[in-house]
Design a protein that fits this description.
Two copies of one chain form a homodimer. The first copy, chain A, has helices at residues 24-34, 43-49, 51-61, 79-99, 129-149, 173-180, 194-197, 203-212, 246-255, 269-273, 276-290, and strands at residues 12-15, 38-42, 64-72, 103-107, 153-156, 188-193, 216-221, 223-224, 236-237, 262-264. Chain A is an alpha/beta fold and 295 residues long. The radius of gyration of chain A is 18 Å and the shape is globular.
């Protein structure tokens, strides 16, 4: 039996990507036993359980659903790809509403030639980053009213510039806020994920801006580890294992007035290979040491 | 014998880091035979030849020296480390003046715990990014007058945020321009290296700002290749091999009024292993295809 640490874990949320080997029911179970306040759900785990059953499981647990991950992949240049993206994101919006979360995290996709939702990067092709970013804004504009009707917010996630080619052409919090500005705050928000934005020279100012505009929809924490993993997507670590200054960034988030959940979303093969209870115990320990005191 | 392409290569500069296996004399020789207008020199190759001899070689060649790489490593928190950095940068300033270039490229260093000029990243220790950045500004302030006295400009290089922990805490062109604003334009400038800034949503605006403030001291081109190399420092490619939109960015640089040299600086093991003539021929071809028509 793993011992879970004692302390105020009421705002800590387990993102199911952190315990990739667990089913949704198993992730909800460990989060509940550890005394967490919430879970963040990925759509693959929801689909596996079935949407209605997933909604029943989380409701029965008493946990909040801090977010649903993820909508997005909005950069297609062709009509067919755009129609597919709209249909898939509308489905995700309905899933979020059914699961009882208002926050749908959007990973908007990379250059069309560089990636697909499932494919590996391919060289060559369309390198027009400006146009890809405009298409993201266009698609968000088409989705935002539908999202609002369902009580769900499209939460734009800036991804680290390391992923600008193949994962997300939204690269900074400022860019996300500038895009969001055209829409009501209850339809389009932003999320601060330390892994993606820790390096930003304007981070404090932008966190305050996001909060003052009513768009700070989530706070996700994990560390920037070095050396980078062979698959750089998996280079995340527990808080304290890398180079992110969690006390400082958390203080900025708290000062800005954020009172929501703090999700831990770590992609890391070694962590995925460990037992779920051990992973949740470690993340709770690190949260109590490096994040919770500064909230 | 490698055939070099014909075309206007008068603004193309070979950075000696691209042909790592060549001595300074060999790099100058191939640049001259290929019809390039300039070379960018690294201090290790200069030291190897001896400063006076290096200056003699480049002067005899008739090539311009577009820049000297590199000064920097200014983030030390201890007095000894700071004194060492000041001494080393003063030496670099004198070298630049002796070699006949006004532009000293500054790679400012990462978090003190994460790197040294030669050491590998180490975990733990000082994660205070805000303080590290302030120390960079303080050191630049101490060096700028000395630099100005020698007719040399400190050219701040924003490095891709992938290197924020271990290589350079200056991560965006905006941050560099904000830091530079406290100093005369002839003492502190900035360089645009496509590899480091291609992803920046504000790139066009910032290139124009740099030029209008008289600080656009250099334009370096190489591509962002995927997948990343095991050592991410070596993930650079010839223009056209990755995801950077060279025609667009070059157009922005030209519109802004930049009339200087275009340096090619590629760290890539495969390119380093190839014959120097072949490397210069390929970079010249790609330059004529993707960069020169837009200048």
């Amino acid at each position: 039996m793993t011992d879970f640490p004692t302390g105020d874990l009421s705002r800590l949320s387990l993102n199911t990507a952190t315990t990739k080997a667990l089913t949704l029911a198993e992730a909800v179970d460990v989060a509940t036993r550890a005394g967490l306040g919430a879970v963040g759900l990925w759509r693959d785990r929801v689909a596996e359980a079935g949407l209605e059953e997933a909604a029943r499981i989380v409701k029965a647990s008493g946990l909040r659903v801090s977010s649903l991950c993820r909508g997005g992949f909005l950069t297609a240049a062709e009509a067919a790809g755009q129609a597919e993206a709209l249909a898939d994101n509308k489905a995700a919006i309905i899933e979020a509403a059914t699961l009882g979360t208002s926050e749908l995290v959007m990973v908007v996709g990379g250059l069309p030639a560089a990636s697909g939702p499932s494919g590996p990067p391919t060289p060559g092709g369309d390198r027009d980053l400006v146009a890809a970013r405009q298409r993201v804004a266009d698609r968000v504009g088409e989705l935002a009213p539908f999202s609002g009707e369902h009580g769900v917010r499209l939460v734009l996630e800036p991804l680290h510039p390391i992923f600008a080619a193949d994962r997300a052409v939204l690269s900074t919090l400022e860019q996300c806020l500038d895009l969001a500005a055209a829409f009501p705050a209850e339809q389009v928000g932003v999320v601060v994920d330390t892994y993606h934005v820790w390096w930003d020279p304007k981070l404090r100012e932008l966190i305050h801006r996001a909060a003052s505009e009513g768009r700070l929809a989530g706070y996700q924490v994990c560390d920037w580890n070095l050396p980078l993993a062979a698959d750089s997507l998996l280079s995340r670590g527990f808080m304290g294992d890398g180079y992110v200054d969690f006390p400082t960034i958390t203080t900025w988030v708290a000062e800005a007035g954020y009172t929501g959940d703090v999700e831990v979303e770590i992609f890391n093969q070694e962590i995925w290979d460990a037992p779920g209870d051990q992973t949740v115990a470690t993340m709770a320990e690190r949260y109590l040491e490096l994040v919770q005191p500064y909230l």
